[in-house]
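We give its fold:
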Amino acid sequence: MRIDLIPDVPSRPSGNERQRVVIEPRRARAAAGRPREEADRDQSHFQKLLQRLYDAALIVDLQGRILDVNVRSEEFLRFSRQELLEMTVFDVISGTDSSVIRTVSENLENERHTLIQAYCIRKDSTYFPAEIAVSKLDLGTLCLCFFIRDITVRRQAEEMLITEHNALQNSGNGIAVVDLNGRLEYANPTMERMWGSHERDGLLGVRISELVLDREGMDALIQELHQGDADTKAIEMRARRLDGSEFDVQISGARNRNAEGEVVGCVFSLMDISDRKRAEDAERELERRRVMLESLGAACHHLGQPATMLLGNLELLEDRLAKSDPDSRKLVQGSLDAMEKLSAVLRRLNTVNEYRTTQYLEPSDDGLGGSRILEI
C-alpha cells in the first residue's frame, strides 16, 4: 500500500503539553522472563542496528509519539535527539494526523510495510521530499517504525526528466532517437506530423534511412556518428513523406550514450526547410534576373556607340553613291534599314526593367528542343 500526503503548515506544540512515554526493549524482555544479560545484549544489538541505518528511523507508538530515533534522524530533521523525543511524528511528517496512523496500522495487519510519499519538516521549517516505509515493531508494546529516506535528488531528477520530456514533445523540430541499426525508438509529435503519420508511434521500428531519398547517405551519417571523431554532424537531404510527397529537411545528429558512456545509437533533430529552400530559390532567381538586366544594360551601352557610328557612316556612303552606282545605293539603303531596326531594338532593351521570357520555338512531340527568348 502507498499513501501520498500533501504537505501542510506544521504546528508543533510545546514539550509541556504531552507526557513523554518511552518503551525500553530491555524492560520488555526482562518482564517476559528472559535473563537480564540476554536482554541487555539484545538491547545493545538493537541500538547498534538502529544507529547504523542509512535511513532516518523513528520509533513511534500508536498515538504518534516518538519513542526513539537514530543519528540519521537528527541529521535529516536538524532537531536534537532530546527535541525529537518530545515531539510526535505529526510534527515532522507534513500532512499526517491520527487517521494516518490508524490507516497504516490497519494495513500492516495484512502487509509487511506501508509506503508513504510525503514531505518532512526540518527544524528551520524547510521541507524535503521523503519516501517513508512504515512497519510494525514489537518491543513488548506494539510500535511503528518510520524509515525516512530523503529523495530530494531523485525528485529533482524526476522533475528534470518530466521537463525534458515535455520539451521534446512540444519542440518545434522533429526529434528522433534511433538504435545502432538506425531504427526509430522514439519520434516526437512534430516528426510524426512532418512525415504525415496519423497514428501515434506509427514511425517506431522504421529505419530512419527509409524516410529520406538518399538512404546510403543517411546510413553513412549514422555510421560516422557511431565510429567517427565528431560527436555531432549536420546535413541537408530530400525526404519522402508516407504519402510519397517530398520535402527538404535539415538533419542534425549526435551520439546517444548510456549511463556507462557507451554509444547506443543516435539522436536527431530534424527541421523542415522547404520554405527556406523555396525562399533561397526565389532569391537566386531574382539575382539571376538582376544580373541579366544588368548584362542587357551593359550590352546596350557597348553596342550603342558602334551602331551609331555605323549608321552615320552608312548615311554618308549613301549620299556619295546616290548618283554614281544605283545597285550599291540599294545595298547601302538596306543596311541603313537594318541599322535602324538594330537601334530600335537596343533602345527597347535599354528600357527593360523586368526580366520575362516568351516561347520562341515549341518543343517537339518527344518533349525535346524548344527555346524561350527575352520578351521586349
